[in-house]
């Protein structure tokens, strides 16, 4: 089995093979394939989740695995047990792979050296969220037929976004042109060497405009003081969406703050692929779980 810790450094060939396998699963005629009967997969969530946790569980069940769901809030983590000791505990019971979401950056890579079963990153701090980016790339490839040559602008709270980082690495590996757009206090300085920051007007001139969830609670000291001000300066408003090219699409990993980073009317608009992204999470995670458990 193979860990999936992140997409930084992953080749275009490997990304393509995961997307191709997801396409196989998206078009698979049966709901349950049972190809991984007898395997046990644990979903270990030390941070909250709706989409990632649920779609991993559906993916695992569609592959025929036995699923163990663990949420830190109901566990001995509340008695002070560490993340490492928790993962080691579940491993000792005989699981075959673990899907993990956690906050501390670097801990997953550290654990990957000590834990023998494959670990799949379901989001680690602001570092990476590889399955989210894979489902985003899958959505783009399905819509445009290719990823190479696309211009993709990622707009919003780049600094806190593992989604932005995983997309940046994977999109660049696949030959897309990535641009970032954020208010000064939401920029990640270390990414400036990899992608330019552009204005919101420039970001609208892209094939894909990917909006990020704003975590306003973390920015009360900054330049953006309210949801209204954020929407006015950086939100995907109906007016801004009308300036996008007819072929261009809007994406968002969700959860969405309606009328903050994206207007309510746009969430389910034909230009928006937000619910398609969520639906693609299942075949992508089937491909990723299968990859982890093979060999
Ligand atoms: N997009 C995403 O990761 O959503 P959840 O936090 O609900 O899993």
Automatic annotation (TrEMBL):
Residues 148-289 form the Aspartate/ornithine carbamoyltransferase Asp/Orn-binding domain. The gene is pyrB. Pathway: Pyrimidine metabolism; UMP biosynthesis via de novo pathway; (S)-dihydroorotate from bicarbonate: step 2/3. It comes from Paenibacillus albiflavus. This is Aspartate carbamoyltransferase. L-aspartate binds at residues 79, 162, 213. SUPFAM superfamilies: Aspartate/ornithine carbamoyltransferase (SSF53671). GO terms for molecular function: amino acid binding; aspartate carbamoyltransferase activity. Residues 2-141 form the Aspartate/ornithine carbamoyltransferase carbamoyl-P binding domain. Heterododecamer (2C3:3R2) of six catalytic PyrB chains organized as two trimers (C3), and six regulatory PyrI chains organized as three dimers (R2).
């Amino acid at each position: 089995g193979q860990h999936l810790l992140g997409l930084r450094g992953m080749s275009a060939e490997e990304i393509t093979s995961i997307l191709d396998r997801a396409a196989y699963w998206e078009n698979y005629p049966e709901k349950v394939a049972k190809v991984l009967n007898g395997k046990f997969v644990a979903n270990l969530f030390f941070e909250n989740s709706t989409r990632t946790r649920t779609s991993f569980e559906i993916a695992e069940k569609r592959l025929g695995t036995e699923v163990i769901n663990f949420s830190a809030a109901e566990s001995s983590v509340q008695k002070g047990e560490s993340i490492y000791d928790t993962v080691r505990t579940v491993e000792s019971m005989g699981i075959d792979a673990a899907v993990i979401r956690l906050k501390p950056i670097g801990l997953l890579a550290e654990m990957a050296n000590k834990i023998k079963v494959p670990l799949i990153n379901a989001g680690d701090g602001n570092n990476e969220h590889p399955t989210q980016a894979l489902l985003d790339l899958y959505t783009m490839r399905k819509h445009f037929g290719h990823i190479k040559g696309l211009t993709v602008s990622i707009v919003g709270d780049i600094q806190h976004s593992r989604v932005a980082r995983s997309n940046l690495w994977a999109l660049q590996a696949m030959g897309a042109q990535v641009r970032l757009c954020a208010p000064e206090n939401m920029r990640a300085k270390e990414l400036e060497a990899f992608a330019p920051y552009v204005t919101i007007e420039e970001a609208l001139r892209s094939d894909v405009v990917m909006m990020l969830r704003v975590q306003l609670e973390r920015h009360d000291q900054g330049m953006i003081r309210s949801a209204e001000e954020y929407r006015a300066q950086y939100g995907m408003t109906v007016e801004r969406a009308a300036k996008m090219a007819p072929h261009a699409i809007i994406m968002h990993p969700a959860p969405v703050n309606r009328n903050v980073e994206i207007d309510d009317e746009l969430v389910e608009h034909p230009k928006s692929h937000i619910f398609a992204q969520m639906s693609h999470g299942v075949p992508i995670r089937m491909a990723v779980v299968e990859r982890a458990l093979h060999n």
